[in-house]
Amino acid sequence: MKETNIDSMKYRTHTHLAGIDVETIIAEKGSCVLTIKECFYEKNVNVSGNKTDGYFIEFVEDLKPMVVNSGNRKTIGNLVKELKSLNSTDSRNIGNWSGVQIELTFDPTIKMMGKVVGGIVVVPPKKVLISDERALSVLSQSKSLDELKNNWSLLTKDEQKLSTVEAKKNEIKALFS
Q: What is the pLDDT of residue 158?
């Protein structure tokens, strides 16, 4: 069957996830958020006709594996550090990356060996501003030391670190002691 009016890259031969794949996913779904199934290092891998040593990610989603450059590994490591509350060394251990969701985008300005070729970029995690409003509200509902203890456990670690939240906890604790 003859096909017309299709993407000229639809039937290309490739062994690993490429920028065009990420662009297509973004065009179809609005974003490219994928879950890491496994990350590994392997030597002498055929990457679209070239033998290479490198780090690779396989995804839970039905996609080809992705070659992970040093910049993307650094971004994923930082994300894993934040999400799993790991130290820097453990967050760089690729064995700890399984199950983590990452967002990919395509950057057409990426250079390789001095030439602009475009490439896949892992989107750095967005910093979430922590507010004490929710935490103070949760703590204020405490009617006993047991409720205070339970409500404290409902707060995130970042909320618990806020000085206003710590002060409120101590204030309520003093009321019931």
A: 81
Domain holding 79, by residue range, is 19-122
Counting the structural domains of the chain, the total is 2
**Do 147 and 170 belong together in one domain?**
yes
Structural contact between residues 105 and 26, judged by C-beta atoms closer than 8 angstroms: yes
Rounded to whole angstroms, the maximal C-alpha distance in the chain is 80
- Helix axis angle for 133-140 and 145-153, nearest 10°, is 150
The answer to whether residue 73 sits within a structural domain is yes
The pTM of this model reads: 0.68
Q: State the Cα–Cα distance between residues 151 and 148, nearest whole angstrom.
A: 5
pLDDT for the residue 1: 86
9-41: pLDDT as tens digits: 878 888 999 999 999 999 999 999 999 999 999
Residue 31 sits in the same domain as residue 114: yes
Q: CA-CA distances (angstroms) from residue 142 to 77, 146, 166? A: 38, 8, 14
158 and 104 within one domain: no
